[in-house]
Description:
Shape: globular
CATH architecture: 3-Layer(aba) Sandwich
Helix content: 40-55%
Number of strands: 7
Strand content: 5-15%
Strand order of the largest sheet: 1-3-2-4-5-6-7
CATH superfamily: Alpha/Beta hydrolase fold, catalytic domain
CATH topology: Rossmann fold
Radius of gyration: 17 Å
Number of domains: 1
CATH class: Alpha Beta
Amino acid sequence: MPERQTAIHLHYAEAGHGLPVVLVHGFPFDHTIWDAQMIALGGSFRMIAPDLRGFGESAAPEDGYTMEHFAADIVTLLDRLGIDRAVWVGHSMGGYITMAALRRWPQRVRAVAFVATHARPDTPEKKLQRETSADNVTRSGVSDIAFTMMSTIFAPAVDRQGPLAQRIYDIMIQASPAGVAGALRGMAARPDSRETLRGLKIPALVISGAEDELIGAELADELAGLIPGARHVVIPGAGHMPMVEQPDATTDALREFLESL
């Protein structure tokens, strides 16, 4: 696991005061996928949304893209902000990063919310697919993977030519090739997190999209079932991006969870 001195300084957005909540975006996005939640919840909580290394306005080193490296960056950011413990909300890859934090720095996690993610490691076939995609990104850039993802990340009712989809596509194609390739390889190498979650003793929420093609109902149900006392909220009309597809319902689920802490 990486030492803390390997961490980089992250660009981040912040809003509000009170209970600290760190919003960890998924692959290959940036902190702006959480804009609706930052606005809606910033009046009641201290909302912090970083750009992960390799994404958004954060630096994109050539290496250091394990889930533990990502988590170390966030812990270092929390140190900079004088925050000892925070609620971690992880979307997709951000969920894998949150699971890494629970393994390495559990004392820094007050509670967790997992959004459109799961606890299993990659299958051998998925590992190979990610390695191939990483090689392609290194050679040809991020446009192909962004285009491919557009067909799978939204619920069927979302207009792929509409402003919401265009906004997400623009975020993806602006990502650093080094960051995208590194994150792909980091996800391929991540461990099984099921045992980590079975022993969890902090409050937990699972949010899943009812029409998520990437994280099906079976994986979402398994994740919620692993965590003692976890609440599972299924968002109707949402695919893999519930925070932008159904922002009000996602915000309501998060608000109710945060207010219960």
